[in-house]
Amino acid sequence: MSLSLRPSPMSRWLYALLLCWLPGLAVAAPAPLPVVATLEPLALLLRDVGGERLQVRVLLPSGASPHHFALRPSQRAALDEAALVFWGGPALERPLAALLAQRPAGTVIALDAVDHHHESHRWLEPAAMAQAAARLADALAVLDPEGAAFYQQRAQVVREGLVQTEAAMRQQLAPWRDTPLLLDHDFLDAFWPAMGLPRPWVIRPHPEQQPGSAHVRALARQLGSAPAVCYLRETGAPMDALAARVMHGAVVATHEINVLAPVGHASYAAYLLAVGQQLEACLQAAAGMAGKKKP
User: Does the pLDDT at position 273 exceed 70?
Assistant: First the structure.
């Protein structure tokens, strides 16, 4: 079953967002304001709020890790030229923290300004992105006063739409909440509480460290006793020896999910729905292997 196959509040929101774009297209647009989003999901939200008044550049290329990277001269130039930078925050993109701290006040928006000393994928949390939309609109209104009403209008539509998106997705995913789910590490950490889902089993509780033998043995026992498991891995990530060892003998449905490079989506909401669809497909496959049917 697909999250987008039947009419829902989401379809009405997407139509409302289209109507919000039209006034901006009906008048002569000024030269677009150069802005940078460090990751593609953040760029989607920037485009939702800023429309044609912004020239959005994504800093990190597809497949690049936000945790470990070195800026090329062209990327550093893009940051220097940007009127505004929207980034994940120091917990996620630590290599950028010192550089962005040097920018003028009001020209940097962090999705999560708190340094938790562990990665946080808060772009998967609709409420956090709704709050960010409001902060982006306020910052853009200062940088581009003529567009202030335009930014505020679009941000309001985004916020209202994301409330509906979250509610619709929670309802759609609820029937699969008891299906076991396995990840290499919890790269969807902000998604579970937003969707009312339990946290998954993880092979590596700390993504930068190898797990202890006791954890590996306990996880293998859990997987072996489960009727079937959804194993969700990031697009392009190889099946390593540890994952194969942990899942040996278990009934596993394996799917890939792309959370960092959602190229081709028209909006942040469309991206979020795609994440939900990929997750649901994996859970549904695992439930089918275990002989379950959706209630």
Answer: yes
- Per-residue CA distances from 120 to 26, 95, 186, 280 (Å): 39, 15, 9, 22
User: CATH homologous superfamily for 172-289?
Assistant: Nitrogenase molybdenum iron protein domain (3.40.50.1980)
Residue of higher predicted confidence among 291 and 282: 282
Q: Are 49 and 140 in contact (CB under 8 A)?
A: yes
The whole-number pLDDT of residue 261 equals: 64
Question: Can you give the pTM of this predicted structure?
Answer: 0.86
pLDDT category, 6, cuts 50, 70, 90?
Answer: very low
DSSP 127-159: HHHHHHHHHHHHHHHHH-GGGHHHHHHHHHHHH
Query: Which of 231, 225, 216 is CA-nearest to residue 182?
Result: 231
CATH class given for the domain over 9-169: alpha beta
Residues linked to residue 115 through DSSP beta bridges, in sequence order: none
Average pLDDT, the chain: 85
Nearest CA-CA partner of 59 in 48, 45, 74? 74
Q: Is the pLDDT score of 262 beyond 70? A: no
Query: How far lies 25's CA from each of 57, 108, 136, 149, 163, in Å?
Result: 21, 27, 20, 14, 26
What single letter denotes the amino acid at residue 191? F
